[in-house]
Fold SIR2 family protein.
Amino acid sequence: MWPLTDRVFARAKTEGVPNDIKVLEHVKSQLSDNSHIEHILSQLGDHRAIADRSKEKSVTFDGVILPVDSLDELHQRILTWIAETIRWGYKPAKPDGTPEDIGTLEKRIVTIENHSAFVSAIFNRSQAGIAERRRAVRLFTTNYDTLLEDALALGGFSYWDGFSGGAVAYRSHRYGDEEPNLRDRAHVIKLHGSIDWHLGEDDRVWRVRDGDLYPKKISRVLIYPQSTKYLATQRDPFAAQFDLFRRSLGEREENVLATCGYSFGDEHINQEIELALQRPENKTTVLAFAPSLNSTLERWRTRPWGKRVYAITGDGLYVGTDGPHSPPTASAKRDWWTFAGVTKMLNSGAEACAL
């Protein structure tokens, strides 16, 4: 998120209207040092809600006065920069002098090999006799890219994502609806939206191919709108996504939630997990693949239900308050918590990663 934030700021300098970068830098200065572009957008949303209630219908950022319409336009520019950066790819400069690599429409640098290997590890291994009986694997993601969906399609695995149609599709799943039981291998549930989601004139959410001029769009749906009135018309798809997450966590049968690449920086998601785990009847086990223990995992592992929290970190395996087990034997930390490490574990078992 932080390289993406830097890229958005760079584009605001070179492609935005004159005051875009000044507004962004002012908003960033109001937030904690570890804030990124999602926090900045939420802060802009709060300012927008205040402006909408004010007599002047505007808000001032370090001497720059923006009316509500201008705030909306800035928000849309930011979402476009985010979507294009994710769609085409971006690699920041490295300390060793390697320059940044900026993907473009003509030279995209996004690859899918890691996602394809991950999907294959889930659905192509140890499936004999159970693929027809098991329920769909739910893949919850906070990422906006389409790599999971693309990898599933390229692997020939059917999936449901709440939309109906083809290359252009409309959002058919609504808040409160049950998940379908269509024998799909996976359900892809994007908690924070997607780069190909758009809000149409009729308040319907569309999944649209990049570059299509139809249906007519009034907004790009990307960021979960948080608790403000801002983007209130877009709230339903996000409420429906979190409803599916909540139901999945709340099932009373044996259940496993594995996280990979998630930093536990979203308090809304953390709260949903914690509320589910603390229920006496809950049987969900958490496998948290993370570089190290963080404050959330540290708190969870000491709770009465902490024995159902497994943290697979670079320092070893923690089970509740026990650990670390299987600590690294050399100076280098274990890499079994990475995307590639999880894929290897799915393919070959934990023993292969603990050597």
In short: The first helix runs from residue 2 to 15.
